[in-house]
């Protein structure tokens, strides 16, 4: 009887606690917009208010109405940067962030139609109201550049145009080589949509491997290490009739590029799985532990850092962070990777090396992605380098 009473007491406590949280939310005084978004300013900012097209950097805590936190950039020490007004975030953010100024902090109660709707996402069930506490750290206005004189451009047979503003003396770029580049991408009117220099993150890719837009694969072969150049790329060799992210449909785009390094890629060696057990999950994913790791396994919301090489069933490599020399990181359970990866990574520990065999329904199903044909079973050799809570 005492044990039963204790269980009832504990359950009652949590029910009362959840109800108290919900009542607390309902009792707080919010402003409400015509769309149904509720908000209150926690700390006024002292800077600019955002405008359409600005690049915003924010920290946020996301929770359900019962107080359950389902995402927190403070814990990851990774603020989020995105361009407002381009559909990169939920509608509640697009509207709400225009209401606070730089340096400010606010709480937003976002109804389902302005959040994740009827489908929900990860820990957010369908048709749920969600609450965000958002700190607006920085605002950068859209940058404009002065375009080079188009008469100076050289046209190529592939449709890309280029002009070299500073000639380098290094290795000529060829298919299969690894290129490290800083770039600034902008529209024909001069508005910048991406800039690796601002992020202090040069980009690396293998030429001719389909890792970048076709215009880059074709245009970079006219350049060499040390070159500074501008590429003009027609929309057919960029993001096509649909566009992507900040780039609208049928947009011709331009890039100022600086070729920092050209080198041969590191050729990955397939993991030796001889004599190792092949295990299978309920989902149909198979995995082979080649080297056991240590510490805890990753959990939903953790940031994991991995090296990987992806193979088709015939053994051909279609992608490899090892070849690029750049580890890859993603948030577990955030749908940033294929389902097979999200399942497999939870069986690994820091330092673990594993081969995973991913059936089509846990990979790209009937879609053709780069060199991956539809309905492909994919094989990945993955090394879990680090786990960040």
Structure characterization notes:
The chain has three domains: 26-140, Chitinase A, domain 3; 150-263, Chitinase A, domain 3 (Roll), CATH 3.10.50.40; 279-388, Chitinase A, domain 3 (Roll), CATH 3.10.50. It is globular. The chain is α+β, with helices and mostly antiparallel strands and 389 residues long. Strand 1 and strand 2 form a beta hairpin. The two termini are 41 Å apart. The protein has helices spanning 2-27, 73-76, 91-96, 196-199, 214-219, 321-324, 339-344, and strands spanning 31-32, 38-43, 55-64, 69-72, 80-83, 105-110, 130-140, 154-155, 161-166, 178-187, 192-195, 203-206, 228-233, 253-263, 279-280, 286-291, 303-311, 317-320, 328-331, 353-358, 378-388. The longest helix has 26 residues, at 2-27. The strands form three sheets. Strands 1, 2, 3, 4, 5, 6 and 7 form a seven-stranded antiparallel sheet that branches. Strands 8, 9, 10, 11, 12, 13 and 14 form a seven-stranded antiparallel sheet that branches. It has seven helices and 21 strands.
DSSP helical segment count: 7
Question: Mean pLDDT, nearest integer?
Answer: 89
Quote the CATH topology of the largest domain. Answer: Chitinase A, domain 3
Main sheet attributes: strand count, strand direction, barrel closure? 7 strands, antiparallel
Question: Tell me, what is the CATH class of the largest domain?
Answer: Alpha Beta
Distance between the termini: 41 Å
The count of β-strands is 21
* Number of separate domains: 3
């Amino acid at each position: 009887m005492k044990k039963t009473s204790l269980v009832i007491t504990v359950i009652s406590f949590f029910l009362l606690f959840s109800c108290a949280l919900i009542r607390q939310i309902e009792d707080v005084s919010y402003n409400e917009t015509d769309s149904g978004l509720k908000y209150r300013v926690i700390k006024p900012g002292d800077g600019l208010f955002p405008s359409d097209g600005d690049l915003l950097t924010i920290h946020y805590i996301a929770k359900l109405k019962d107080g359950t936190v389902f995402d927190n950039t403070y814990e990851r020490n990774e603020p989020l940067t995105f361009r407002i007004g381009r559909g990169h975030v939920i509608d509640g953010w697009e509207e709400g962030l225009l209401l606070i100024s730089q340096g400010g902090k606010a709480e937003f109660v976002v109804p389902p139609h302005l959040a994740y709707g009827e489908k929900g996402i990860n820990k957010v069930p369908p048709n749920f109201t969600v609450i965000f506490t958002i700190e607006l750290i920085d605002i950068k206005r859209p940058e404009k550049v002065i375009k080079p004189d188009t008469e100076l451009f050289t046209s190529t047979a592939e449709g890309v145009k280029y002009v070299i503003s500073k000639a380098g003396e290094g290795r000529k770029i060829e298919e299969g080589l690894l290129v490290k580049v800083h770039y600034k991408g902008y529209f024909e009117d001069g508005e910048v949509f991406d800039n690796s220099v601002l992020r202090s993150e040069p980009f690396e890719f293998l030429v001719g491997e389909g890792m970048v837009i076709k215009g880059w694969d074709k245009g970079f072969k006219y350049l060499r290490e040390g070159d500074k150049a501008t590429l003009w790329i027609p929309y057919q060799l960029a993001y096509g009739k649909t566009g992507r992210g900040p780039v609208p449909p049928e947009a011709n785009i331009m890039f100022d590029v600086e070729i920092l390094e050209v080198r041969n890629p590191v050729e990955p060696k397939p993991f030796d799985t001889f004599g190792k057990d092949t295990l299978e999950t309920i989902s149909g994913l198979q995995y082979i532990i080649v080297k056991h790791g240590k510490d805890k396994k990753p959990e939903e919301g953790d940031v994991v850092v991995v090296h990987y090489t992806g193979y088709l069933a015939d053994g051909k490599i279609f992608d490899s962070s090892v070849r690029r020399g750049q580890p890859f990181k993603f948030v577990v359970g955030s749908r940033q990777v294929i389902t097979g990866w999200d399942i497999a990574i939870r069986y690994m520990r820091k330092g673990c090396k594993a081969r995973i065999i991913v059936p089509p329904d846990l990979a790209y199903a009937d879609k053709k992605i780069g060199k991956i044909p539809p309905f492909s079973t994919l094989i990945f050799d993955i090394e879990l380098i680090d786990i960040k809570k």
